[in-house]
Design brief:
It is a single chain. By secondary structure, the chain is of the alpha/beta class. Helix content is about 30%, strand content about 25%. It has 10 helices and 18 strands. The strands form 3 sheets. Strands 1, 2, 8, 9, 10, 11, 17 and 18 form an 8-stranded mixed β-sheet that branches. Helix 1 runs parallel beside helix 7, helix 1 runs parallel beside helix 10 and helix 4 crosses helix 7.
């Protein structure tokens, strides 16, 4: 029996794995993607799809630069995916609002406006009257908001499936329902994988994009599952921007849903929604937008996000695992960082320099 061989083998068919397969296949390199269930069936199926680096970054630094590079790719990518696959990935240039529920938060957000504007970013402070005119459903008494004109959104599941569809059209082989049991090594080099069916696949490069399951394959990778729960609503009254409060976000999607999120729960591989979490998220949302009390609750959803100790992704190579490219640990930024991660991994596999500096995300920091 012949052993399947390829240049690049991707472990995991979430948003990161799909983006990597698409980027590698775009260069004409043979690529195989193995997904234990179905493409986009885990956290990528329900993520809110926010492209909001200025919300996620605590301040200037490597993560912000990576996230900004990722965000910048989406306008052209969304149009190209619609042209190439017929899939509308829900890209909407809405901007985002980070609201201040008291004067202390307002001072913190005003400080962010200052340094973000110095960085040349499209942000400004909205006084309460202008905030109310932009989003009339917000409750009275807010102290203002930070408006980020360039933070936008997509529909995560649509993006994942569009990337996988285009990757396949470009020649990628996508195998669903086939997990990876372990990596195959010759000395310090990773040369392939053994699947859950006992089959072996050989590859020049193996890409670890298994999300929260990454550490089951490489135990020294400090990635753990962190559950995030969302609630989906439908309302006759909607929002013009994604709204971020201190402990909740509320996002109107292209398919008329309103997404309320999200918890961060360190509970292992338990992704069952909890009624208590649903009530807590709704209470937070109703505090900011009282009109949502009349909305229809469609469902609650939870997924497992891959978290690292420093909440930064793991991207790159490690000396003791030649042939293995890490693309994991993206926490709640998988969608935002998907396209740039795909481009980085494709460059590494081709022996080319990364398009952005990834030193801060090296897997060596946990070796």
């Amino acid at each position: 029996m012949s052993v399947p061989r390829t240049d690049v083998l991707v472990i995991g068919g979430g948003i990161i794995g799909a983006a990597v397969a698409d980027a590698v296949a775009a260069g004409g390199t043979p690529v195989v993607l193995l997904e234990r269930a179905q493409v986009g069936s885990a956290a990528s199926s329900g993520a809110a799809g926010l492209l909001a680096p200025l919300v996620e970054a605590e301040g200037p630094g490597p993560f912000l630069e990576l996230a900004l590079a990722g965000r910048a790719m989406f306008r052209d990518a969304a149009a190209a995916l619609l042209r190439d696959t017929g899939v509308d990935v829900g890209y909407r240039e809405t901007g985002t609002l980070r609201v201040a529920e008291d004067d202390g938060v307002a001072r913190e957000l005003r400080h962010r406006v200052s340094w973000e504007r110095e960085r040349g970013l499209g942000v400004r402070w909205l006084e309460p009257a202008e905030l109310a005119s932009r989003e009339p459903l917000l409750h009275e008494g807010l102290s203002g908001a930070l408006f980020s004109a360039d933070d936008h959104q997509v529909t995560s599941s649509a993006l994942t499936h569009a990337l996988a569809r285009r990757a396949a059209a470009r020649g990628a082989v996508i195998v669903e329902g086939l997990g990876v049991e372990r990596l195959l090594r010759v000395g310090d080099r990773v040369v392939g994988v053994r699947t859950t069916r006992g089959e072996e696949y050989r590859a020049k490069h193996v890409v670890l994009a298994a999300g929260p399951w990454s550490s089951t394959l490489v135990p020294r990778v400090t990635v753990r599952p962190l559950k995030g729960q969302l609630v989906h609503l439908r309302s006759a009254r909607t929002l013009s921007h994604p709204i971020f409060g201190s402990d909740v976000y509320i996002v109107a999607k292209a398919d008329d849903r309103i997404v309320v999120g999200a918890t961060v729960e360190d509970v292992g591989f338990d992704w069952a929604p909890r009624e208590e979490a649903t009530r807590s998220l709704l209470d937070r949302a109703f505090r900011l937008i009282p009109a949502l009390r009349d909305a229809e609750v469609l469902d609650a959803w939870a997924g497992l996000r891959p978290g690292t100790p420093d909440r930064l992704p793991i991207i790159g190579v490690r000396r003791d695992a030649q042939g293995l490219i890490f693309a994991t640990g993206h926490f709640r930024n998988g969608v935002l960082l998907s396209l740039i991660t795909g481009r980085i991994v494709a460059a590494i596999a081709a022996g080319e320099p990364s398009p952005v500096d990834i030193a801060a995300f090296s897997p060596e920091r946990f070796a």
